[in-house]
Amino acid sequence: MSETSQDALARLAALPTANIGDAMDRLGVLDSRIRPIWPGARVAGRAFTIWTRSGDNALIHQALDVVEPGDVIVVNGGGDESRALIGELIGQRAKNKGVAGFVIDGAVRDAGGLGEMGMPVFARAVTPAGPYKNGPGHLGRTVAVGGVAIAPGDLILGDADGVVVVPLADAERVAQAAEAVFVTEEGKRAAILESA
User: Fold this and answer.
1) Residue 81, annotated ligand binder?
2) Is 110 annotated as contributing to ligand binding?
3) Is 89 labelled a binding residue?
4) pTM here?
5) What domains are defined for the chain?
6) Residue 57 vs residues 72, 134, 165, 167: alpha-carbon distances, Å
7) Tell me: the pLDDT tens digits for 43-101?
8) Which is nearest to 113 in space by CA: 94, 134, 132?
9) 114 is in an annotated binding site
């Protein structure tokens, strides 16, 4: 990632996802059912994309051999809520590799353990049912997650409100626009408090 993109990511990471979504005309916001699985989870990083068959995490295991520190593992799991694609063990392996977090259009498990280790995970559901490990799938392709197309390297931002995706090519422009939204809202908030 270029220095300019790194700077834009750092600036975006300091802002609420709502401001970023507003700055993108409310586009790039994932389905509201993809939520943080533990309170206070926040994520910011570049997308490492996975497309896997519903309920199967073989490709996630493969990804852990090639991800880079700062990557957010983004998984099109077909929205399947019946089988957890990751849990505490994969979470710890990912943490050891410097992964920034996970965004999964599917289910996960071990929510408590993932929270205790501080691994940010955003998913559609939580279930104790484990995954299959047969494949097939693909790494590093554009995927659809929560109704949004995400390309490898796009910027992923998540907080209590959910997840937004900033196309890498738009990172600097969106960072500037989101900062302007933040300043405007801070001014409105101050005016409201003054009038109370």
Assistant:
1) no
2) yes
3) yes
4) 0.96
5) 27-167 (3.50.30.40)
6) 16, 8, 23, 26
7) 999 999 999 999 999 999 999 999 999 999 999 999 999 999 999 999 999 999 999 99
8) 94
9) no
